[in-house]
Specification:
The complex is a heterodimer of chains A (340) and B (314). By secondary structure, chain A is α/β, with parallel strands linked by helices. Chain A has helices spanning 55-62, 89-94, 112-123, 128-141, 158-170, 188-205, 216-222, 240-245, 250-257, 264-274, 301-305, 325-339; strands at 5-18, 27-40, 44-48, 70-75, 78-79, 95-98, 176-180, 208-213, 225-230, 233-239, 311-312, 318-319. Chain A has two domains: 40-68 and 87-245, P-loop containing nucleotide triphosphate hydrolases (Rossmann fold, 3-Layer(aba) Sandwich); 250-339, no CATH class. In chain A, the strands form two sheets. An eight-stranded mixed beta sheet of chain A has the order 6-7-8-3-9-10-12-11, with helices on both faces. In chain A, strands 2-1-4-5 form a four-stranded antiparallel beta sheet, covered by helices on one side. Chain A is globular. Residues 278-283 of chain A have low confidence and may be disordered. Chain B has one domain: MetI-like fold (Orthogonal Bundle). Chain B contains twelve helices and no strands. Chain B starts with a helix and ends in a 7-residue tail after the last helix. Classes of the chains: A alpha/beta (340), B mainly alpha (314).
């Protein structure tokens, strides 16, 4: 793990234009609003948030499938945001992806060999024989066998299909793999196998992962750092253990509380406490102020008018919440006093 | 793959048997007596009886079927009731005309339908898409004989680019053959183009939303390779099913369009045969048409198997 960032996202905005019926005018929808993220090489960043929070839009933008409307995406010191979706091939080669639904992410008319070697066909000048040898190698890496080469996706189970997708993503030995909910479509029994497989290959090849999921417990298990997204904003970011064990942002706490507890008594107590917090049903996008203000149990007057910037949190990382502003203010006041 | 072809060929045997039985049963099912048809009100009862004996109509029906089948297998479909020409010769003479009409219109339908469908699907809800949908609605609503007349009025009568009527065999003059087939083929193929375009558009829109398209683009494949190799191959699976049906429709439609353009194809022959109740001729025509449909279906099944691994026997 080196310290220079592999992927650096700064103030990234992703905007979709919804066209009206006649194709004139229409409204805009901001899926990602000023996101900042960093992934160092060999590092796994978990990106969590509920559905619609913009995490997949962020992933698609990193993959160059959706253009960034503003901001900066630096990968290996190349600015990708300005390239739109026309990434140069050498960059494409370094960023691969595994998607959520292995039933739709493998082309049903292709054989496993074709699927796994498709990236090699585009990015390398390997002969067919070389590609086949590499395909066998790749299948072994994901615990599949040579005999699977000539089969078609419909002959495999969900877990096996996801293994094939991973093999294809590994084919070019990329520096970064975007994992968009890689296990949420799988049986609980196969999830751990796939997670462990991803884990092992990461350590073997030093690949960085951008892991997108909505299950914080799972993300905590595999990630070095966790970023939490809410309505297009990244509201908290920090070391995996810190975010999981002492979440700073009220939204992260709510997310963690959504994971059921094994002890019924504790679960009951938590539920009782949750009932005390105000208006949870309002999910409308706040035009001004903190994006979470309508659901936040700890909302302050200041949250209505100002958008909280990222404040450092004890134990590492940042949270975009005024709860952590006090220290900052005190520090700056002290600095001012010293200056006087 | 060979197994698929073999299976399909095997399935043809019972199908062809049923078709041959049905075709032959015409003779018995029709209310009119062939002997009365040929002799009309003329002739004595003895003459009627003699002819009946000579045509073998007194034999039990299964025996007559077997005799007819035996001859049909050897390519002898009997003679017309009215002008004593061999049915086989008459049909084979007209077949290339109808076939070339069907083939050209199928080609037009496939090329126009697929390209319009793909273009529309690439930009859903854009003006191109709307235009294509509008065109498809018109194309499907317009009757082919009426459209044929309009085409003749514009391109043959006014502009004089193409002949208004008639057909030149390809062996005589290929260029004239093309010129004489183009208007009837457009008239015939328009509705099918529209039907195919609709099918291609909806299949393509569905496929383009699949994650393997997203994956292929993320892997850095060229837009062309994503479109043709990944999207179109899979979008064609439902389209091929429609395609075979459309070609069958085209065969039937050819019979009508031939009338508009005064082309001596199977259609003209069939209509004359129906009017005169020329049973051997009708039997021959039905058999040939069924044969063509069966060949189209067989080809479709094989293409379907090639495109869709799930349809292949394991």
């Amino acid at each position: 793990m080196s310290d220079s960032p592999l992927l650096q996202i700064a103030d990234l905005w992703v905007t979709y234009r919804q066209r009206s019926l006649l194709g004139l005018g229409g409204t805009s929808f901001h899926a990602v609003k000023g996101a900042n993220l960093t992934i160092r090489s060999g590092e796994t960043l978990g990106l969590v948030g509920e559905s619609g929070s913009g995490k997949s839009s962020l992933a698609n933008t990193v993959l160059g499938l959706v253009p960034a409307s503003s901001g900066c995406i630096k990968f290996d010191n190349v600015d990708l945001a300005s390239l739109g979706s026309r990434y140069p091939l050498p960059v494409r080669k370094q960023i691969q992806a595994v998607f959520q639904d292995p039933y739709s992410s493998l082309n049903p008319s292709m054989t496993v060999e074709d699927i796994v070697t498709e990236p090699l066909r585009v990015h390398t000048r390997m002969s067919k024989v070389e590609r086949r040898a590499r395909a066998i190698e790749l299948l072994r890496l994901v615990s599949l066998q040579e005999e699977h080469l000539n089969r078609h996706p419909h002959q495999f189970s969900g877990g096996q299909r996801q293994r094939i997708a991973i093999a294809s993503a590994l084919a070019l030995q990329p520096k970064l793999i975007v994992l968009d909910e890689p296990v949420s479509a799988l049986d609980v029994s196969t999830r751990n196998q796939i997670i462990n497989l991803l884990y092992e290959r990461r350590d073997q090849f030093g690949i960085a992962y951008l892991l997108i999921a909505h299950d914080l417990a799972l993300v905590h298990h595999i990630s070095d750092r966790i970023a939490v997204m809410y309505l297009g904003h990244i509201v908290e970011e920090g070391p995996s253990d810190r975010v999981y064990k002492s979440p700073a942002h009220p939204y992260t706490r709510a997310l963690l509380d959504a994971v059921p507890l094994l002890d019924p008594a504790r679960q009951r107590a938590r539920r009782a406490q949750r009932k005390l917090s105000p208006a949870q049903e309002t999910q409308r996008v706040a035009e001004t102020g903190c994006p979470y203000k309508n659901r936040c149990p700890l909302v302050m007057p200041r949250c209505q008018t100002e958008t909280p910037p990222a404040y450092p949190v004890d134990g590492g990382g940042v949270a975009n919440c005024f709860l952590y502003a006090s220290d900052q203010v005190r520090q700056s006041e002290q600095r001012e006093r010293k200056a006087l | 793959m060979f197994r698929l072809i073999f299976q399909r060929l095997l399935a043809l045997v019972p199908l062809l048997f049923i078709v041959s039985v049905l075709t032959f049963s015409f003779t018995s099912l029709l209310p009119s007596d062939p002997v009365d048809l040929i002799l009309g009100d003329t002739g004595t009862d003895e003459q009627h009886e003699m002819l009946r004996e000579r045509m073998g109509l007194n034999e039990p029906i299964y025996l007559r079927y077997l005799q007819w089948l035996g001859r049909a297998v050897q390519g002898d479909l009997g003679n017309s009731f009215f002008n004593s020409v061999s049915v086989m010769d008459a049909v084979m003479q007209r077949l290339p005309v109808t076939l070339s009409l069907t083939a050209i219109s199928a080609l037009i339908a496939i090329v126009v339908g697929i390209s319009a469908g793909v273009v529309a699907a690439l930009r859903p809800r854009s003006w191109v898409d709307r235009l294509a949908t509008l065109g498809a609605t018109f194309g499907q609503a317009i009757p082919n004989f009426w459209f044929g007349l309009i085409l003749v009025a514009i391109f043959a009568v006014n502009l004089r680019w193409f002949p208004a009527t008639g057909f030149t065999p390809i062996t005589n003059a290929p260029w004239e053959w093309l010129r004489s087939s183009i208007l009837p083929s457009i008239a015939l193929g328009t509705a099918s183009s529209a039907a195919i375009a609709r099918q291609v558009r909806s299949a393509m829109v569905g496929v383009l939303q699949q994650d393997y398209i997203r994956a292929a683009r993320a892997q850095g494949l060229s837009a062309r390779r994503v479109l043709f190799k990944h999207a179109l191959t899979n979008a064609m699976v439902p389209v091929v099913a429609v395609l075979s049906f459309q070609i069958t429709v085209l065969l039937g439609g050819a019979l009508i369009v031939e009338q508009v353009f005064a082309i001596n194809g199977l259609g003209t022959l069939a209509i004359a045969a129906v009017r005169q109740q020329d049973i051997p001729m009708l039997q021959g025509l039905v058999l040939v048409m069924v044969g063509l449909v069966v060949i189209v279906q067989l080809a479709t099944d094989i293409i379907y198997g090639l495109l869709n691994p799930k349809a292949r026997p394991t």
